[in-house]
Fold these 2 entries.
Entry 1:
Amino acid sequence: MEKAILLASEREEDFVFAAEIARRCGGEIVLFSDVDKIVEHVGREGSPQGIFVGFSDIEGVKSFSAKTKGKLETDRVHAIVSPSDSDTSMAAFRCDEIGNFVLNRYSNPIQDGAYYSRVVKAIDQDRSFGLKSVLNASGGVQTVKLTDSYQKGFAANAVAFHLRELRCNERIARTVAGAVDELLMNAIFDAPVNEKGQRIYDRTPRGVSISTVGVELQIGLEEELIAVMVKDQSGSLNRTIALDHIAKTFDLQRNHIRGEDYQGAGIGLALVIRSGGSLFFVNEPGKQTEVTVFFRQTEKFKDFKNPFQFVATRIYNRK
Amino acid sequence: MMTVKRDDRTKPVQIKISGVIDERAEFGLRLGKIDGEVIIDCGSVLRINSAGIKLWREFWQKERRKGFRGKFKAVSTVLVDAMNVVSDFILQSEVESICVPYLCTACNKENISIISVGELRQTLPILPVLKCPICDAQCELNEIASDYFRFLTD
């Protein structure tokens, strides 16, 4: 596998962003004008470290899907989309050939490239990796193991308390606690499956006490970053379903969720994205799932809610 | 955890909901009978999760079918967010006032101002001026206006 970052985008900011990723990953950036040439290149040179493609309309996503079906490693394909272009973003999130999504609301494309290069490097690892490997050396990580679903609320409140102690903005502390709550709820009630792969607790009322053996919460802090990871031992994450839930975030920019559609809408993940979080899903089928949410620490809450964002996935041993 | 204080001596009845609304929020049990006019103060609701949104919506839908005529006042920032996501979370006609977060441009302290929906409808996109109670400097909205006040335009 080559270390190169392949880029097909006409936007200068995307180039600066991808070039910084290439620099951080120790490879070169190779520019392409169309998808066919990327497919040719990958056929010749093997999978690169990352393939970044800028999309500005639904037709571009459809064309990409048709031309690359089964030819690229989904985990290494990164769509660059505009968060204000709901239609294109939703189409990209629902495209089976794309595993990662960069919302090109850059605060600074070089800094954002440096930040996202950690994700690109993490995707390169042989198996799921824990929070420590995604944070800089300075970032401390605290781990909490849960044994009962009742502890979910305590864990979320403890995270808020911890952040307040660190003089974090009150609403940021509460928002991170909310993300912890949603991630734990998914790990406790939606992740466990039986031997046939059927969900065990997805219809169980969320207020019921159930055992949560294997569910672990990690929180890590850096100067400008708050990261929370929830790990479970189900390894049952379905990328298509998770990304479809997130695609709803873009629909929410135009439409409310109608009350009657709320049930089963996977609104928890959409709420995390709406509150400024970036998500990273890692799944080892049948072994474990890690879902990480990253928040940028900012002085103003309105900047916290409106940062550079991404959604990344790494699915190991796909069948 | 959600806490509820109810004062039946006042007319209309006043109910204050505070804390965290999650899957354990037993609205029916905690709020008591909602009869006739009632004012629900939500200014101290700190957090609501997706399971809490579901329970809230189901409870107030039922009350609406029974003829609910109440008003929600000081709707907290997290509930405003929920209103902006779920269509019938709180109906526009039921909102008396909301919490609007301002940030002091000098000392960076966040200040919450409770503003009536009537006033917002008249003044938006311009917001009422707020001076920081600590340093008297001008405050600015600490939210993205198009997103935060979306429930008023839908």
Entry 2:
Amino acid sequence: MVHILIVEDEKSINDLIAMNLKLVGYDCTQVYHSDDAIHATEHIRPDLILLDVMIPGTDGFSLMEHKAFRGIPVIFVTAKDRLDDKVRGLKLGADDYIVKPFESTELLARIEAVLRRINPNRCFTMDHVEVYLDEHVVKLRGVEVELTNREFELLAVLIQNRNSALSRERLLDLAWGYDYFGDTRTVDMHIAKLRKKLSLENRIKTVYKIGYRLEVPR
Amino acid sequence: MRFWQKIYIGTLILFVIAFDIGAYGLVSYSYDFLLQRETDSAFREHAIILSSAESNLETAEKLYPDAGYDKERLTAIIKPLADYYELQGIYLALFLEDKEVFSNIEFVEENLLTLASIENTNMMQQKQGDARYLYVASQMPNHAQIKFLYARDITALDGYKKDIGQVFVYISTAVCLVLGVCIFILLKYLTIPIERINQTANAIAKGAYDKRVPINSKDELGEMGASFNLMANSIEENVSILVTSAQDKQQFIDNLTHEMRTPLTSILGFAEYLQNAKAAEEDRIKAALHL
């Protein structure tokens, strides 16, 4: 189980992040002060830290230099959107830099990307399906299933945002790219194929008036 | 052309012109003065020689009353005088009834003789080849038939004019060189403040607002430097005010966006969560409470 430390003084944001992470199945620890952050880092040794810059006590940039943080990937989540702040954060060794306000899909995608970099051969399993995200391989009951590129992208997006509904437009943006001007029915067709090929009829749910959601037990 | 170069060349040209005009005036004045002195002494000597010749003639008349005037007698009187004065560059001639009796003058000026009378003593100067002579002619006061011509060699005066002209050229050149060096050093020294003001202005233009002109004189350039520094002070002050206000504004905007973003992120995020998430009822309530 992936464990993520959230360092954010604003309780509502902290909760929001935590709830979204829980939805996807990550374990979270929430702290609101830099001292607690150091303490938690030393004891829990999380897989990833989401760090706000403006927090009580030591600020996020200075906190990065603390020895407790060495070897643990960090993503800055902050309202400081100025270029020099971004450059400073990344130069300090952060793996990514997310500016508020952010959308949960973006946050999840970036977390996923950082985790994949650290541990490349991660495998996602549900029912009889195994998905090897890096190798672009999907197995159903141990047998490899042929998926088109687009189908795989769609599956990856659904997995990344599991337990959260995505509209057809959103799916088009995420799986096909922003420059793709297609009909939303394309999404329906691909979803139908995915369901059929991987027998995921019970997992990929149609959410009325919204879109689709991949539901997996937490 | 640089400012100091303009002053330098201007001064030198003005000096050379003024010096040469002065030198020319001085030379021609002193030439006239010397010529006047020569003329005066020519008249004086002419009168002395004339009177001594006449007294000799009268002495001879007393000794030999019947002898009359013949060429030999007159020659005998004038010859010793002529020989004596020849050494001093003075030549004499004697005419009886407009006929030459004696002369050691190279060129005789006939016009003078026609004018010569007891009342007026005639004088003129004449250039003969390279030489210049001063002629004085007159009749003998008591022997109207005898005319006397005096010639004075004043060639040396021309030489003097030429020599002094040359000396002036040398002096002018030498003074010009010395003056050139002196003015150069002086101008370089005097234009140092201008150079400094210029450098400081350039530095300020490039953004070094704390640069100031060093002032060590109380003349116009010192005043200009002081005014310049005052200007630089007010510029620096205004720039720092601008910088501070820009920083304040940035700070304010940063704070504002931060204050705005946090609730915005939270509201949008929870709304999205409520809409999309397949969450337990207690989570949904928690999310709704945050809204």
